[in-house]
Amino acid sequence: MPERTIAEPYKIKMVEPIRQIPQRARARAMLEAGFNTFLLRSEDVYIDLLTDSGTSAMSDRQWAGLMLGDESYAGSRNFYKLEKAVQDVYGFPFVVPTHQGRGAEHITSQIRIRPGQFVPMNMYFTTTREHVERAGGVFVDVIIDEAHDPTSEHPFKGNVDLAKLNKLVKERGAGSIAYLSLATCVNMAGGQPMSMANLRAVSAWAKRNKLAIIFDATRVVENAYFIQQREKGYADHTVREIIKGMMSYGEGCTVSAKKDNLVNIGGFLATRSEGFFQKAREMVVVFEGLHTYGGLAGRDMEAIALGTYEMCEDEYVASRVRQVHYLGNRLRNGGVPIVLPIGGHGVFLDARRFLPHLEQDVFPAQALCAALYVDSGVRAMERGVVSAGRDQATGKHKYPKLELVRLTIPRRVYTNLHMDVVAESCLALYEGRSRIRGLRMVYEPEHLRFFQARFKKL
Ligand SMILES: *Cc1c(COP(=O)(O)O)cnc(C)c1O
C-alpha cells in the first residue's frame, strides 16, 4: 500500500493575495534588477522561495498572543512565558532573548572564544562563522566528506567526522579548542541532519577532552523529524522528545526563532551553565537590550513562546517536511538534477548538471535563478560562485564545488498547488536548458556581493 497522505493540521483563516505579473513585465523587472533576485520588488514576485527565514505564517493563537504583549521595560510576563517554553521544549534552564539568531551568536562567540582558539563546526553558517572569526576564533570544518558531495545519499550528511576532531586534538591539543559548534540540519549542506548516534559519539568524545558542545539549534525540529523517520529506535518517539534528547548533549544553544519557531523576528540563547548565563546576561544589555527583552517587543516574545510549542507538533512537522519532499520528488522524477537526499527546508537545484554548457565563470546558478523568475515569477536564491565571493589573497573568484539554486519553502505559507507551479516551471526550463545563457558581472560590491551584484546577459 502506498504511504497515506498526512495533511496540514490546520485550515486557512486569512489569505494574502499574490499575483503573477505578465511574462513581459517579469522580463523587464529582471533586467531592472540586474539579474539578481535580491533586487526584485516582492510585489513583482509570484511565489517567493528566496528564504524560509522570518517568512512563516503565524497561527491564530500567535496573532491573538500579540495582543497580550506586556511592553514593560523590565520583567515582562511574555519573557517568563518564553523562558518556560524554552525550558519545556529544549530543556535548558537559563534563557537570554536576542533580536535574532546572530545576536545570540555574537554574545556566545565573544564570551567563549579566546583569540587564536579553534572552533570545530559541521560545515558552517555565514553569520555563525563571521561571529566566531570576529572573536578571533578559527573555523575548522569537521563534517563528514559526504556532505560536500551533492550525489551522495547518506541519510545523515550533517554528521561529524570524529577522525577530523582527533586529528585536530593530536596536532594542536584540546586546549586549543574553544568549544564544538554543532548545527542541527546543516543549512549550507542542503538542510541535512545529524544522527542521534553521531551526537552521542561526539558528546562522549567532547567529555573525554573536557570540551563543551554549543548547538546552533535553529533547525532542530527538522533534524528531530529525520531522526524519527530514519534512525533505528526512534520511530515511536515524538519530535518533542527527540529535540529534548538531542539538546541534552549540549551545554547550550543559540537559536534564530525566524526559522523553526514560526515567527517573523526573534532569537535566543539558552544554557545549563550558570556561569555562561551570567556573562551572557551582562553582555546582552550592551548589545541587544535588558536581559528580559533582548531587543524584542513583549508581543514578539509571546509569539515565539507559542510558536516554540507549535513547531514540535508531529503532524505539523511531518506535513512541513513532506511538502519540501513533494516538490523535490516531482523534480527528481522529472529528471531535474537536485541535491540528494532532499533536505528539511528546501530543494537545491544542481546548476552544474542543469546547465552543463555554462562554465562557472558565467554564473550558471545566478542565470538559472533569473530564468526561473522570468518563466514563472518564482523567486529563488543563488548558492554558488557569486555567493562564495573572491579569495582575499589572489583576488580571483572562489570556485565552490557546489553551484546551486536554493528553493526554500516558507512554513505554513504555500499549498502543494504552488509547489506544482514551481515544479512545472523548473521542468520546462530543464527541457529548454540549452537556450539559457550565462551572465557577466557589471557591478560587484566588496562585501557579501551576492546581495547587490548586478549582471548582464551574455
Ligand atoms: C538563519 C540562521 C542563522 C542566523 O539567524 P538570524 O536570525 O538570521 O540572525 C544561524 N544559523 C542558521 C542555521 C540559520 O539558518
Keywords:
458 residues, alpha/beta, Aspartate Aminotransferase, domain 1, Aspartate Aminotransferase, domain 2, 2 domains, 5-stranded mixed beta sheet, 3-stranded antiparallel beta sheet, 16 helices, 14 strands, binds pyridoxal-5'-phosphate
Summarize the structure in words.
The protein is an alpha/beta fold. The protein folds into 2 domains: 23-52 and 314-457, Aspartate Aminotransferase, domain 1 (Alpha-Beta Complex); 60-310, Type I PLP-dependent aspartate aminotransferase-like (Major domain) (Aspartate Aminotransferase, domain 2), CATH 3.40.640.10. Helix content is 39%, strand content 12%. It has helices at residues 23-32, 60-66, 77-90, 101-112, 126-134, 162-172, 196-208, 220-230, 239-247, 274-287, 298-310, 314-333, 351-354, 364-376, 385-388, 416-431, and strands at 47-48, 94-98, 118-121, 138-141, 180-183, 213-216, 252-256, 267-271, 346-350, 378-379, 381-383, 404-408, 439-443, 454-457. The strands form 5 sheets. It has a 5-stranded mixed beta sheet with strand order 2-8-7-6-5, with helices on both faces. Residues 53, 100-102, 125, 127-128, 183, 187, 216, 218-219, 256, 258-259, 267 line the site of pyridoxal-5'-phosphate.
